[in-house]
Amino acid sequence: MTAIPTPLVLGIETSCDETSAAVIDGDNRILGHIILSQDEHEVFGGVIPELAARAHLQKIDAVVDETLAQAGVRLRDIDLIGATAGPGLIGALLVGVCWAKSAAFGLGRPFVPVHHMEAHLFAPSLEDPEAEPPFVGLLVSGGHTMLLHVPAWGQYRLLGETRDDAAGEAFDKAAKLLGLSYPGGPEIERVARAVRGQRHRLPRPMLKRNQKREDASYYDFSFSGLKTAVVELAAKLDAEGDLEQETPHIAAAFQEAAVDVLATKTMRAVEETGCRRVLLGGGVSANTRLREEIAARLRDGRLFHASTRLSLDNGAMVARAARFRYESAPGDGLAASAGAGLPFPGLIRPSA
Ligand code: KG4
Ligand code: ZN
After folding, report:
1. Could you tell me which of 170, 145, 160, 138 has the C-alpha nearest to residue 275?
2. Considering the entire predicted model, what is its pTM?
3. What is the 282 CA–ligand 2 centroid distance (Å)?
4. Residues with Cβ < 8 Å from 208, sequence gap 6 or more?
5. Domains (ranges, CATH) in the chain?
6. Which of 71, 260, 281, 290 could covalently link to 23 via disulfide, CB atoms 3.0 to 4.6 Å apart?
7. Cα angle vertex 126, ends 302, 133, to 5°?
8. Of all atoms in ligand 1, which is nearest to the CA of residue 141?
9. What would the pLDDT profile of 185-242 be if each residue is shown by its tens digit?
């Protein structure tokens, strides 16, 4: 089947706690974009899946209406509709997917199920036309940590991934242990910013100097031990009565350890592939220390990342990924459904 031209793409994101929609034009310019963060979860210190799904359902119509109004277009002007179909919270995903499929069916337009992590890879290209493959991709979000070599869009060679907690999850858990609010990543960064010098040093899990390329641990990550190290350090300082004044120092030590591991493994991938172009995606890529550290180590290489707004979950990256997927394999997409563990399209595992 040949692709019909799709100048206007509507993208919908409801995989976790952001209800978002965006319209992009044929040049991938963002014409309208609304991101509504659910604050319902704050008092619980984490996302409650059932609450998230209900909030998406209550907000999705208004979010799309406002997005279309901002873009100055009507729903019937839209040529293609994409929605995040996974991975994510199944109830939350279903709201976006059902909305998008119903609209696509009613309008007689194609629907495209989008993989959330592939969408994160596309986010920087919405702001910088040079953020294109080839690159080494570091995807760091609340649910995933993946190191990829991306020679072309749609070809994702997996070098390493986390064996336990995701990077963002580790930031969130460390923040919670330190009495900081949710989401923890921006909070850790905020309190650590005031700290000068390192008062504490935390372990760098799964990072050893003598690791070899053949070891799976060379590229893989592990963050749950780092969380335990935060617990132990906080308990020790608490017993000494210093916990409150030491909290920013613990946050800074945690951030340095996480950034060091992420940057070191990313640079290993740069060395091995010979590709001096690195692209960061996912919520943790909003972290300034991570960006600074990788940029410093890359020296003459190129670092791509989106603005903070587009690093976090958003509908624009979903629209961009939907256009790519539709152009690669045109179809009406209506048979697709949401899946909490949707496989990453084009992912090539090391053993394959
Ligand atoms: O991609 P994202 O918005 O949602 C998921 O797909 O999970 O990522 C959210 C994660 C959260 O764990 C949040 O704490 C983390 O990204 N995050 C950060 C920062 N901003 C968001 N982590 C570290 N530093 C930040 N500035
Ligand atoms: Zn995300």
Report:
1. 138
2. 0.97
3. 5
4. 217
5. 9-122+311-348 (3.30.420.40), 132-305 (3.30.420.40)
6. 71
7. 45
8. 8
9. 999 999 999 999 899 999 999 999 899 999 989 999 999 999 999 999 999 999 999 9
